[in-house]
Amino acid sequence: MNNSVPTRQRVLEAALNAFGTDGYAATSLDALAEQLGVRKQTILYYFPSKQALFDSVIDSAARDLVELFEQEASRGLTGIDQVEAIVRRIFRLAVSRPELLGLVREVTRPGSITVGRLSDHVGPTVDRARAFLEREMTAGRLRRSDPSMLLLSLYSTVVGVASELEVQRAMGIGPSARATVGRRTELTRFLRAALAPTDPGRAPESR
Amino acid sequence: MNNSVPTRQRVLEAALNAFGTDGYAATSLDALAEQLGVRKQTILYYFPSKQALFDSVIDSAARDLVELFEQEASRGLTGIDQVEAIVRRIFRLAVSRPELLGLVREVTRPGSITVGRLSDHVGPTVDRARAFLEREMTAGRLRRSDPSMLLLSLYSTVVGVASELEVQRAMGIGPSARATVGRRTELTRFLRAALAPTDPGRAPESR
DNA sequence: CCATCTCTCTACCATTTGGTAGAGAGATTT
DNA sequence: AAATCTCTCTACCAAATGGTAGAGAGATGG
Fold it and tell me: Which nucleotide is closest to B48, CA to C1'?
């Protein structure tokens, strides 16, 4: 019965799944252990407490997210194309590993005390994203606006549309792969419209 | 010690607060009771189980949301102005009763089985919103796109920007009232850009 | 061959949790 | 005044939870 994947890693994966899907409080170590075909004490051998396990899950997930992001950002795209490439990537993530986005939502919950741990990891990446937006605005490839706010809008929109399956069902959008692509296509159109620089023929709106 | 507000309602309010902030699993009846200065059994007198209490909270919250929405929709605005009015209203809600949006997020979580209860309430309102978008697109006051998808994008963006305080902090946006207004202003600009009709033969730009 | 290290297990435990049973105190009705 | 109804309480309870202590088994190294 010896699996080739080391136990510690199997625990981490199962925990990410559970925390990201059901949330921290709704996940019990016993249930996790049973799902792994192992005793709870085996989990506690690798991670001294539930909170420590959660922290490790966050670290692991954050590394994955950052890597994915940096990888997609290092292809030298510019303007809306770069934004679209990342949106596309996040959607693939929402399909292949929905629990990852779920974990982000769990961590960023109002009462959470673990946010710091996540933002420690993604902070530099966020800074780079903001710098990118700023640069592209200056170059005239994106509509001018506040980069921080724009980033927040982008984040909310993309993660929301990518992961809020239940809301989508309530709005009559099926969870099929086809519908997912449709959502992404429509979202891309939405973002393009919002991000495209104002028509150079017309004077830029000042405030 | 007799409060003027009836106990049942006080329980409902405190429960909405707790469920919307910490989530269902992380909320215990004992903690709720203590916070109310009452015994757990008093709660169980009005609501036969924790799940029943949660259901009632959803019902109550859904009624509030629908009322707020319909009220804002009955003022006869059109096009982007109507969208902006509702965004404005949701932001006010995010400030005055953040737990309400938190509850929506809790209910629409992937593992949730209670989604039906919420969508039963808001279904008709969602339909009306979709019909509105469709109508305004046909009238040329909004850019043409898939109404369902647009609604989803709008929902995700607005609720996300309005309520993801922790993400905002991670992105260097303070939680002050001034920052909230800034977020709303920026979001409005973002949405106007995305929603404005493509061909501005006579694009009404009201303010 | 003995000692140590790694890993998983059994055996418990204190606390918390949602929930049951039913008593007691006012108020209201008959 | 008696009976009933409304509301909140005390007293429990079985199950689940996170966690401690330490044994056993196999591999590794001196």
Answer: C19
What radius of gyration do chain B's Cα atoms show? Answer: 19
Instruction: Answer yes or no: is A15 within a domain.
Output: no
pLDDT tens by residue, A123-138: 999 999 999 999 999 9
User: Which of B107, B171, B178 to mutate to probe the A interface, most A CBs <10 Å?
Assistant: B171
Is residue A203 a part of any domain in this protein? no
Cβ contact B153–A186 (<8 Å): yes
Looking at residue B71, which CATH number applies to its domain? 1.10.357.10
Low-confidence ranges of chain A (pLDDT < 70): 1-3, 199-207
* Contact call for A167 and B150, based on CB within 8 A: no
Residue B175 lies in a domain: yes
Strand C bases contacted by the protein (CB, 7 Å): 7-11, 16-22
